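C-alpha coordinates incoming
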Protein backbone atom coordinates (compact mmCIF):
# COMPACT_ATOMS: atom_id res chain seq x y z
CA UNK A 1 0.00 0.00 0.00
CA UNK A 2 1.34 3.49 -0.77
CA UNK A 3 2.55 5.23 2.35
CA UNK A 4 0.80 8.51 3.26
CA UNK A 5 3.81 10.31 1.70
CA UNK A 6 2.50 9.35 -1.73
CA UNK A 7 -1.14 10.21 -1.10
CA UNK A 8 -2.75 13.57 -1.83
CA UNK A 9 -6.25 14.10 -0.45
CA UNK A 10 -8.45 16.01 -2.89
CA UNK A 11 -11.39 17.90 -1.48
CA UNK A 12 -13.64 20.89 -2.09
CA UNK A 13 -17.28 21.90 -1.79
CA UNK A 14 -20.04 20.40 -3.90
CA UNK A 15 -19.69 21.50 -7.52
CA UNK A 16 -16.32 23.15 -6.92
CA UNK A 17 -14.78 21.03 -9.68
CA UNK A 18 -13.17 18.09 -7.86
CA UNK A 19 -13.99 15.57 -10.59
CA UNK A 20 -12.85 17.95 -13.31
CA UNK A 21 -9.53 18.54 -11.53
CA UNK A 22 -9.11 14.84 -10.65
CA UNK A 23 -9.44 13.96 -14.37
CA UNK A 24 -6.55 16.29 -15.18
CA UNK A 25 -4.32 14.62 -12.59
CA UNK A 26 -5.29 11.19 -13.94
CA UNK A 27 -4.34 12.34 -17.46
CA UNK A 28 -0.89 13.09 -16.02
CA UNK A 29 -0.56 9.59 -14.56
CA UNK A 30 -1.94 9.90 -11.03
CA UNK A 31 -4.03 7.06 -9.66
CA UNK A 32 -7.45 8.28 -8.51
CA UNK A 33 -9.35 6.68 -5.66
CA UNK A 34 -12.72 8.40 -5.39
CA UNK A 35 -14.57 7.85 -2.12
CA UNK A 36 -17.73 9.34 -3.63
CA UNK A 37 -17.70 6.64 -6.33
CA UNK A 38 -17.12 4.04 -3.60
CA UNK A 39 -20.09 5.42 -1.62
CA UNK A 40 -22.25 5.05 -4.72
CA UNK A 41 -21.10 1.52 -5.47
CA UNK A 42 -21.70 0.17 -1.96
CA UNK A 43 -25.21 1.65 -1.92
CA UNK A 44 -26.18 0.27 -5.33
CA UNK A 45 -28.47 -2.76 -5.51
CA UNK A 46 -26.60 -5.67 -3.95
CA UNK A 47 -23.94 -3.37 -2.47
CA UNK A 48 -22.53 -4.24 0.93
CA UNK A 49 -24.18 -1.24 2.62
CA UNK A 50 -27.71 -2.21 1.58
CA UNK A 51 -28.22 -4.87 4.27
CA UNK A 52 -27.35 -2.57 7.21
CA UNK A 53 -29.28 0.32 5.59
CA UNK A 54 -32.40 -1.83 5.25
CA UNK A 55 -32.04 -2.99 8.84
CA UNK A 56 -31.75 0.56 10.23
CA UNK A 57 -34.05 2.51 7.90
CA UNK A 58 -36.45 -0.02 6.42
CA UNK A 59 -37.60 -0.53 2.85
CA UNK A 60 -38.84 3.06 2.47
CA UNK A 61 -35.33 4.37 1.65
CA UNK A 62 -34.75 1.71 -1.01
CA UNK A 63 -35.74 1.96 -4.66
CA UNK A 64 -37.65 -0.83 -6.43
CA UNK A 65 -34.40 -2.40 -7.65
CA UNK A 66 -33.00 -2.55 -4.10
CA UNK A 67 -30.52 0.34 -4.41
CA UNK A 68 -30.54 3.14 -1.84
CA UNK A 69 -32.91 5.87 -3.02
CA UNK A 70 -30.56 8.82 -2.69
CA UNK A 71 -33.22 11.55 -2.84
CA UNK A 72 -35.34 9.90 -0.16
CA UNK A 73 -32.34 9.24 2.04
CA UNK A 74 -31.15 12.83 1.61
CA UNK A 75 -34.55 14.12 2.75
CA UNK A 76 -34.52 11.74 5.70
CA UNK A 77 -31.07 12.64 7.04
CA UNK A 78 -31.54 16.37 6.56
CA UNK A 79 -34.59 16.21 8.79
CA UNK A 80 -33.08 13.93 11.44
CA UNK A 81 -29.55 14.24 12.80
CA UNK A 82 -29.69 10.80 14.49
CA UNK A 83 -30.52 9.24 11.13
CA UNK A 84 -27.64 11.13 9.57
CA UNK A 85 -25.22 9.91 12.22
CA UNK A 86 -26.42 6.32 11.83
CA UNK A 87 -26.08 6.43 8.04
CA UNK A 88 -22.55 7.79 8.38
CA UNK A 89 -21.72 5.07 10.91
CA UNK A 90 -22.77 2.48 8.33
CA UNK A 91 -21.13 4.05 5.27
CA UNK A 92 -17.88 5.64 6.44
CA UNK A 93 -16.07 2.54 7.78
CA UNK A 94 -17.05 0.62 4.63
CA UNK A 95 -15.84 3.43 2.38
CA UNK A 96 -12.52 3.62 4.23
CA UNK A 97 -12.15 -0.14 3.99
CA UNK A 98 -12.80 -0.11 0.21
CA UNK A 99 -10.40 2.83 -0.17
CA UNK A 100 -7.74 0.84 1.70
CA UNK A 101 -8.29 -2.10 -0.67
CA UNK A 102 -7.92 0.21 -3.67
CA UNK A 103 -4.75 1.66 -2.13
CA UNK A 104 -3.33 -1.84 -1.80
CA UNK A 105 -4.06 -2.66 -5.46
CA UNK A 106 -1.39 -2.63 -8.17
CA UNK A 107 -2.65 0.55 -9.85
CA UNK A 108 -2.07 2.58 -6.71
CA UNK A 109 1.26 0.95 -5.94
CA UNK A 110 2.67 1.63 -9.42
CA UNK A 111 1.44 5.22 -9.84
CA UNK A 112 3.81 8.08 -8.99
CA UNK A 113 1.24 9.26 -6.45
CA UNK A 114 -2.39 8.70 -5.48
CA UNK A 115 -5.21 11.24 -5.47
CA UNK A 116 -7.62 10.22 -2.74
CA UNK A 117 -10.81 12.21 -3.42
CA UNK A 118 -12.74 12.81 -0.20
CA UNK A 119 -15.50 15.43 -0.56
CA UNK A 120 -15.99 15.79 3.22
CA UNK A 121 -12.31 15.44 4.17
CA UNK A 122 -12.31 18.19 6.81
CA UNK A 123 -15.88 17.61 7.98
CA UNK A 124 -15.38 13.97 8.95
CA UNK A 125 -11.66 13.88 9.74
CA UNK A 126 -11.83 10.12 9.14
CA UNK A 127 -8.76 10.20 6.89
CA UNK A 128 -6.40 11.86 9.33
CA UNK A 129 -2.91 10.41 9.02
CA UNK A 130 -3.68 8.79 5.67
CA UNK A 131 -2.37 11.51 3.35
CA UNK A 132 0.56 13.85 2.92
CA UNK A 133 -1.10 16.94 1.50
CA UNK A 134 -4.64 18.25 1.30
CA UNK A 135 -5.50 19.79 -2.06
CA UNK A 136 -8.58 22.01 -2.11
CA UNK A 137 -10.48 22.86 -5.29
CA UNK A 138 -11.99 26.27 -4.72
CA UNK A 139 -14.52 28.46 -6.49
CA UNK A 140 -17.06 31.07 -5.46
CA UNK A 141 -20.25 29.88 -3.78
CA UNK A 142 -22.29 31.50 -6.54
CA UNK A 143 -20.46 29.40 -9.14
CA UNK A 144 -20.89 26.26 -7.02
CA UNK A 145 -24.66 26.85 -6.97
CA UNK A 146 -24.83 27.61 -10.66
CA UNK A 147 -22.77 24.56 -11.69
CA UNK A 148 -24.59 22.13 -9.42
CA UNK A 149 -28.10 23.27 -10.39
CA UNK A 150 -27.11 22.99 -14.05
CA UNK A 151 -25.54 19.54 -13.59
CA UNK A 152 -28.07 17.89 -11.29
CA UNK A 153 -31.35 19.76 -11.65
CA UNK A 154 -31.44 20.23 -7.86
CA UNK A 155 -33.23 23.39 -6.75
CA UNK A 156 -31.12 26.40 -5.84
CA UNK A 157 -32.39 26.26 -2.24
CA UNK A 158 -31.41 22.58 -1.96
CA UNK A 159 -27.89 23.29 -3.20
CA UNK A 160 -27.57 26.17 -0.76
CA UNK A 161 -28.66 23.87 2.04
CA UNK A 162 -25.98 21.31 1.11
CA UNK A 163 -23.33 24.05 0.93
CA UNK A 164 -24.40 25.40 4.34
CA UNK A 165 -23.96 21.91 5.85
CA UNK A 166 -20.37 21.71 4.56
CA UNK A 167 -17.32 23.38 6.09
CA UNK A 168 -17.14 27.10 5.27
CA UNK A 169 -15.10 28.25 2.31
CA UNK A 170 -12.61 30.30 4.43
CA UNK A 171 -12.01 27.44 6.87
CA UNK A 172 -11.52 24.92 4.06
CA UNK A 173 -8.96 27.22 2.46
CA UNK A 174 -7.21 27.66 5.78
CA UNK A 175 -6.84 23.88 6.15
CA UNK A 176 -5.52 23.40 2.60
CA UNK A 177 -1.89 22.64 1.81
CA UNK A 178 -2.51 23.40 -1.86
CA UNK A 179 -5.34 25.14 -3.69
CA UNK A 180 -6.56 24.91 -7.27
CA UNK A 181 -8.66 27.93 -8.16
CA UNK A 182 -11.63 27.00 -10.35
CA UNK A 183 -13.51 30.28 -10.51
CA UNK A 184 -12.37 30.76 -14.10
CA UNK A 185 -12.45 28.73 -17.26
CA UNK A 186 -11.47 25.04 -17.25
CA UNK A 187 -8.37 25.85 -19.36
CA UNK A 188 -7.07 27.85 -16.39
CA UNK A 189 -6.86 24.57 -14.47
CA UNK A 190 -4.21 23.09 -16.75
CA UNK A 191 -1.15 25.10 -15.61
CA UNK A 192 -2.21 24.84 -11.97
CA UNK A 193 -2.45 21.05 -12.23
CA UNK A 194 0.87 20.86 -14.11
CA UNK A 195 2.65 22.78 -11.34
CA UNK A 196 1.19 20.60 -8.58
CA UNK A 197 1.80 17.39 -10.53
CA UNK A 198 5.52 18.22 -10.58
CA UNK A 199 5.48 18.77 -6.82
CA UNK A 200 3.56 15.57 -6.12
CA UNK A 201 5.88 13.52 -8.30
CA UNK A 202 8.81 14.68 -6.22
CA UNK A 203 7.11 13.31 -3.07
CA UNK A 204 7.66 9.89 -4.59
CA UNK A 205 9.73 7.47 -2.50
CA UNK A 206 10.57 4.91 -5.16
CA UNK A 207 12.61 2.57 -3.01
CA UNK A 208 9.46 1.56 -1.14
CA UNK A 209 7.94 -0.33 -4.04
CA UNK A 210 10.71 -0.97 -6.51
P1 LIG B 1 -17.43 18.30 -8.02
O1 LIG B 1 -16.78 16.99 -8.41
O2 LIG B 1 -16.61 19.12 -7.09
O3 LIG B 1 -18.85 18.16 -7.52
P2 LIG B 1 -17.44 18.78 -10.90
O4 LIG B 1 -16.05 18.61 -11.34
O5 LIG B 1 -18.39 17.64 -11.14
O6 LIG B 1 -17.52 19.19 -9.35
O7 LIG B 1 -18.00 20.12 -11.54
C1 LIG B 1 -19.36 20.51 -11.34
C2 LIG B 1 -19.98 20.89 -12.69
O8 LIG B 1 -19.39 22.11 -13.11
C3 LIG B 1 -19.73 19.87 -13.78
O9 LIG B 1 -20.86 19.82 -14.62
C4 LIG B 1 -18.50 20.43 -14.52
O10 LIG B 1 -18.50 20.04 -15.86
C5 LIG B 1 -18.71 21.93 -14.36
N1 LIG B 1 -17.46 22.70 -14.26
C6 LIG B 1 -16.38 22.40 -13.51
N2 LIG B 1 -15.42 23.34 -13.63
C7 LIG B 1 -15.92 24.27 -14.48
C8 LIG B 1 -15.40 25.51 -15.03
N3 LIG B 1 -14.19 25.99 -14.70
N4 LIG B 1 -16.19 26.19 -15.88
C9 LIG B 1 -17.42 25.72 -16.21
N5 LIG B 1 -17.97 24.58 -15.74
C10 LIG B 1 -17.23 23.85 -14.90
Amino acid sequence: MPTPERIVALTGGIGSGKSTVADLFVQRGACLIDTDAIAHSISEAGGRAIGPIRERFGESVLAADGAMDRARMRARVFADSDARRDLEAILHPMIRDEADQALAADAACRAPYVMLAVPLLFETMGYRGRFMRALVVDCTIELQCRRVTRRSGLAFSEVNRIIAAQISRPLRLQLADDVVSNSGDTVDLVPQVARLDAIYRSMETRHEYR
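note: The first strand starts at residue 7 and ends at 12.
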